[in-house]
Design brief:
The chain is of the alpha+beta class. 24% of the residues lie in helices and 29% in strands.
């Protein structure tokens, strides 16, 4: 059976799937999902990397740590930027209380450590510590900032320990100075087994990028999966459930290879990612996708002023809710992590047979053999969002 389908020839899929209207995905998004798409658009615009991934949940939680200690104009700017609701901080932070930042199950590992580090010269308010421990599971951490090398190493070691050694060197000497007194970190790591594992294709398969064809390690499986057309985006999508955490991987791929960049920009800027899959239909599918791993690291200080419009955080901050001692200023805001997508087998995945599995004679082919965007979500949160242009091997 020939499985090297091209999504430029999409007639078979259109005949089998009814078009899905995404008019309900509003241009003016609200709450956490609005921030997820906005963060992706803003951060990806900072660089021209072909492969890219962030943790919107992690970035938002880190900013919530700042909000918890902010007062006055600083608090108001952060509240608006994060789309928080509630008359007081307890109400505004309530939505963070039940978010999973850590999964440790057989075959599934997720770590999203977020920390606010403060110089030991600044006594921390017990109210702040109680608030952030209750809602974000991350009270502020005292560190010595006098020597930048030692401070960077200590902060990185703390994050590395909190991530079970999945995120290292998140802060470097160049990120802080001897005059620094506060740093914010947001790390992430994810690798998970799928509800139904994939099988490994015996040979590397074609993966099309504009102007050339690569060879990539690919996985395939027959399964009943939720999928659909997204006509307004000129794209198709599929949702693949993971074994743990009610998580699923969503892949969105343009039906025209050269429209990949437009799809990426439009999707994350203008659409509600959680609602995007609401009208997907459960269908028998022949799914094929590449193995890949993406590591990403960036400073988000510039994002505060130029993207999220919270300039007082950098220039005239009021963090009197964090410490009675004045002049606390954020010197570093680092985001770093890795996501690994593989076949979802406990060990090495078996080789995929070439025959059609019984019961899947009319399976719809979804062959992810060109650049696509993806996100990992549960019912209420976007944990990771990224784009894949060229697959890279895990090992």
């Amino acid at each position: 059976m020939n499985t090297n389908h091209s999504w430029s020839d999409f007639r078979a899929f259109k005949m089998l799937l009814r078009p899905i209207s995404i008019l309900g995905c509003l241009m003016a998004l609200v709450h956490a999902d609005y921030i997820s798409g906005k963060l992706f658009s803003l951060i990806s615009a900072q660089n021209d990397r072909q492969n890219f991934v962030i943790s919107p949940v992690g970035v938002r939680a880190a900013l919530a740590l700042l909000f918890a200690g902010a007062e006055g104009q600083t608090a108001q700017e952060l509240k608006i930027a994060l789309q928080l609701v509630g008359e007081n901080k307890n109400d505004a932070l309530e939505e963070f209380k039940d978010i999973k930042y850590r999964i440790s199950k057989k075959g599934t590992t997720m770590r999203i450590p977020v920390h606010l580090f403060v110089d030991r010269k600044y006594p921390l308010k017990s109210e702040y510590q109680s608030l952030t421990k209750r809602f974000l599971k991350s009270p502020a951490v005292h560190k010595h900032f006098k020597h930048s090398t030692g401070a960077a190493k200590s902060i990185s070691s703390h994050t590395e320990s909190a991530s079970d050694r999945k995120v290292d060197d998140i802060v470097r000497d160049s990120d802080i100075s001897s005059s620094s007194n506060m740093a914010l970190t947001s790390g992430f790591y994810f690798r998970g087994d799928f509800e139904k594992p994939f099988l490994r294709m015996s040979e590397r398969q074609p993966f099309q990028v504009p102007g050339r064809i690569l060879r990539a390690t690919m996985y395939r499986k027959y399964d009943w999966l939720r999928c659909g057309e997204l006509p307004a985006l000129g794209a198709v999508g599929i949702e693949i459930p993971y074994k743990e955490g009610n998580l699923s991987l969503v892949i969105i791929m343009s039906t025209r290879l050269n429209d990949y960049s437009w799809l990426q920009q439009t999707l994350f800027k203008n659409y509600d990612l959680l609602q995007l899959t609401e009208n997907f239909t459960l269908r028998p599918v022949l799914m094929q996708m590449p193995q890949f791993s993406i590591e990403y690291e960036t400073s988000l200080l510039g994002l505060l002023e130029n993207g999220l419009n919270v300039p007082t955080v950098l220039h005239d901050p009021d963090f009197s809710g964090l410490s009675k001692k004045p002049d606390l200023r954020l010197a570093a805001f680092k985001h770093k992590g890795t996501i690994e997508i593989h076949g979802g087998c406990p060990d090495e995945c078996p080789i995929a047979p070439t025959y059609v599995e019984t019961g899947y004679e009319k399976a719809i082919p979804f062959i992810a053999n060109q650049p696509f965007v993806f996100f990992i979500k549960d019912e209420t949160n976007i944990f990771f969002a990224g784009k894949l242009f060229t697959p890279m091997a895990l090992y």
